[in-house]
């Protein structure tokens, strides 16, 4: 009897006196409202912790070195030579990262119109080929490289046989009002690494200005970006762009093993994912149980609203399960 | 008898329509990988669709009640909060 009463909390049943069908008590509106309230309180709690003491949520760490190593593994898997780390490309990646933090943007071109190549030339790197991949808010290096490999344009940068060198920056800070991590990956092939028969800029661009050359030389792609030489081997490199390092970013790391960059509050994503999966999963399970029990017992009917609830909860579970912490452009 | 048959047809058709739309949502979420804002917008759109679907479906079935609509609303809010928590916060 006690077991039956307990089961009534979770499975549909006919009322003993009236004979009408009832949901499991755990699926009544009062109970559903209680789950919603618990969830709302949890979300608010996390928000307060993130604002007040993000260290409580723990931190994950990864370095530019790991990104470079994983990039070279992917290249090796595709029969391509490894990229060697270049100090100037690292400086360019760091400068780009600092610029994004200080000017609060997340794009290949800054709101002022500064192209990625400006950072490369400003670092003193004279390139014949150059490329840039950006990522933000990932929890680990593997996820960053996997995300790039899953995007055709980023993948083509990663696996471009024209590139010989690489520089990566991993930095944390506040961007667009949110604490996060930026990863800037710069690829390049220096002019000195390619036997040059004639100055490319002269051959293709004539006497156009450097700015015009940059516009002409960029091969746009939906995400991830590549350029072909905008300077001749003998051309002077212009003054560095107005790059500031006074942004709100807090850590920076280069490809030479300066320790792992700490990603504050990055564990929050994993925690919120688990909490959501448990709570929404629990409600989904109860509705699924109702369908299973009502489907078996002739005296019970599957409520039409239950199937709709199962549908939207399944979609939510899919979105939560499939969510990745970061983004790439 | 005729009305019961009509109800069964309506049930089938309405649920096929709902699940087809939700499948589109799943595909949209898949294609919005690495863009959590877009994924959230897809979930939001699906939740709005689910609420409208619930209203229309139960209106046609003539079993709309405040209690039932509250049930839809709570489930919708639970889904919305969950998607917001993971995808946007």
Please explain how this structure is put together.
The complex is a heterodimer of chains A (329) and B (89). Chain A has 329 residues and is of the alpha+beta class. Helix content of chain A is 44%, strand content 18%. Chain A is built from eleven helices and twelve strands. In chain A, strands 4, 5, 6, 7, 8, 9, 10 and 12 form an eight-stranded mixed beta sheet that branches. Chain A has a two-stranded antiparallel ribbon with strand order 1-2. Chain A has a two-stranded antiparallel sheet with strand order 3-11. Chain A is elongated. About 19% of the residues of chain A have low confidence. By secondary structure, chain B is mostly helical. Chain B has one domain. Helices cover 89% and strands 0% of the residues of chain B. Chain B is built from three helices and no strands.
- What is the beta-strand fraction of chain B? under 5%
- Secondary structure category of chain B: mainly alpha
Which value, in Å, is the CA radius of gyration of chain B? 15 Å
Helix- and strand-based class of chain A?
A: alpha+beta
Largest beta-sheet details of chain A: 8 strands, mixed
Rg calculated over all Cα atoms of chain A: 27 Å
Shape of chain A: elongated
- Helix share, percent of chain A: 40-55%
Give the topology string of chain B: H per helix, E per strand: HHH
Mean pLDDT of chain A: 77
For the termini of chain B, the CA-CA separation is 52 Å
C-alpha end-to-end distance of chain A: 61 Å
């Amino acid at each position: 009897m006690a077991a039956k009463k307990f089961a009534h909390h979770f499975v549909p049943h006919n009322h003993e006196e009236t004979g009408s069908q009832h949901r499991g008590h755990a699926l009544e509106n009062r109970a559903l409202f209680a789950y919603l309230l618990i969830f709302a309180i949890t979300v608010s709690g996390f928000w307060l912790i993130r604002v007040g003491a993000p260290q409580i949520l723990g931190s994950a760490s990864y370095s530019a070195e790991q990104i470079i190593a994983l990039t070279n593994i992917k290249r090796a898997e595709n029969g391509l030579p490894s990229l060697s780390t270049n100090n100037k490309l690292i400086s360019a990646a760091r400068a780009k990262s600092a610029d994004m933090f200080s000017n609060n943007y997340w794009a290949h071109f800054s709101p002022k119109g500064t192209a990625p190549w400006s950072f490369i030339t400003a670092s003193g790197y004279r390139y014949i080929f150059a490329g840039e991949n950006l990522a933000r808010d990932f929890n680990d290096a593997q996820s960053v490289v996997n995300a790039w490999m899953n995007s055709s344009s980023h993948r083509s940068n990663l696996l471009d046989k024209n590139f010989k060198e690489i520089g990566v920056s991993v930095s944390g800070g506040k961007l667009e009002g949110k604490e996060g991590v930026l990863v800037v990956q710069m690829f390049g092939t220096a002019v000195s690494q390619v036997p040059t028969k004639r100055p490319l800029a002269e051959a293709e661009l004539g006497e156009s200005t450097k700015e015009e050359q940059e516009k002409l030389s960029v091969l746009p792609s939906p995400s991830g970006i590549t350029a072909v030489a905008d300077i001749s081997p003998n051309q002077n490199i212009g003054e560095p762009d107005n790059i500031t390092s006074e942004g709100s970013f807090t850590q920076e790391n280069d490809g030479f093993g300066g320790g792992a960059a700490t990603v504050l509050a990055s564990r929050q994503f994993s925690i919120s994912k688990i909490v959501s999966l448990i709570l929404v999963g629990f409600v989904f399970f109860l509705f699924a149980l109702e369908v299973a029990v009502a489907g078996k017992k002739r005296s019970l009917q599957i409520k039409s609203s239950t199937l709709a609830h199962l549908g939207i909860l399944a979609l939510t579970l899919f979105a939560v399960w499939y969510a990745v912490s970061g983004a790439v452009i | 008898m005729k009305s019961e048959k009509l109800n069964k047809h309506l049930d089938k058709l309405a649920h096929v329509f709902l699940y087809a739309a939700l499948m589109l949502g799943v595909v949209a979420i898949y294609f919005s990988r690495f863009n959590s804002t877009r994924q959230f917008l897809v979930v939001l759109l699906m939740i709005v669709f689910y609420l409208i679907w619930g209203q229309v479906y139960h209106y046609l079935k003539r079993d709309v009640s405040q209690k039932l609509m509250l049930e839809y609303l709570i489930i919708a809010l639970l889904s919305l909060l969950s998607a917001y928590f993971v995808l946007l916060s």
